[in-house]
Amino acid sequence: MNREIICDRILQAATELLTEGGREAVSTRAVCARSGVQSPTIYRIFQDKQGLLDAVAYHGFQSYLAAKAALPATDDPVEDLRRGWDQHVEFGLANPALYTLAFGEIHPGRTTRAAALAAASLAERVRRIAEAGRLRVSEEHAAHLVHSAGRGLTLTLIELPEEQRDPALSPLAREAAIAAVTTGAPAAGPGDRVTAAAVALRAALPGRDVLSAAERALLAEWLERLAAPGAPAA
């Protein structure tokens, strides 16, 4: 049988078990029984149970992000970030076992492939805001703050009994995070305008070949310093 078909059967079986009974339900024996595949095949494809669980989380987020990417972007990148936040939280609450598998286990210096995939999608949305001149911090700071706030909020809501979840909590956290990293249109004060301009120019650098590699690196360093939190106003 085709390896891809076998892999899909295993992932489907593991995902069903995860949804029904959580991480502990995804034993090699249970996956074999559900998928009709022998355990040596699972180990050959995924190496071990952790490899299988990582693949399950990655597969689930691939499907989610593909559907998310199919939605057309608007002319307002900040509104698109807001919409992306809401979709992220909704996905987590609809798929708590999968979300917890991807984001709930912390390993210093290491992230799951699913979390990295979600972070890349967020970074692209933040890049659009930077290109519009509406970030008050660097792209990296903005992405990390929004990612941390969204993940923490979603895990908190998952942990709470459904009847105790305050529907106002997610919008409140979302707007606080967005306000912390974006400016209005246009940026408010001189410091904000310098930061927004530096961030926007830095975001546009990769697509320009007028400068040499050394010149681009130097300019990027200057712009990063101007975009850093606490940088003096012009």
UniProtKB/TrEMBL annotation:
InterPro entries, A to Z: Homeodomain-like_sf, HTH-type_TetR-like_transc_reg, HTH_TetR
Domain HTH tetR-type as annotated: residue spans: 4-64
UniProt GO MF annotations: DNA-binding transcription factor activity; transcription cis-regulatory region binding
DNA-binding region as annotated in the record: 27-46
Entry-linked PROSITE patterns: HTH_TETR_2
Gene3D superfamilies: Homeodomain-like, Tetracycline Repressor, domain 2
Keywords: DNA-binding, Transcription, Transcription regulation
DNA-binding is among the record's keywords: yes
Residue ranges of the TM segments: none
Keyword Metal-binding: no
Cited PANTHER family: HTH-TYPE TRANSCRIPTIONAL REGULATOR BETI, HTH-TYPE TRANSCRIPTIONAL REGULATOR RUTR
Protein name: TetR/AcrR family transcriptional regulator
Organism phylogeny: Bacteria, Bacillati, Actinomycetota, Actinomycetes, Streptosporangiales
